[in-house]
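Let us work through a complete example step by step.
Step 1: write down the sequence.
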Amino acid sequence: MEREQQILSRISEMVAAEHRLRESLRAGVTDMTEEHQRLGALERELDRRWDPLRQRRAKAEFGQDPDEARVRPVSQVEGYAS
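Step 2: predict the structure and record it as tokens.
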């Protein structure tokens, strides 16, 4: 399992990519359909990356081993209620 810093680093990279995609879309530089598909995929992957970080923090808070946190499938992570 990735450590928090590795997870946060990857999330930061993905957020930067998301911002670039959104800017490209706003500027009309790229095809809207393609960009929306790419943004959707990126947003789902970001959700998957945030999930183990939340798991780690919750496990640590309740005296469990944070290294037991796991990346879960998009279908499971996307099914959570906000």
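Step 3: interpret the result. Residues 4-77 form one domain.
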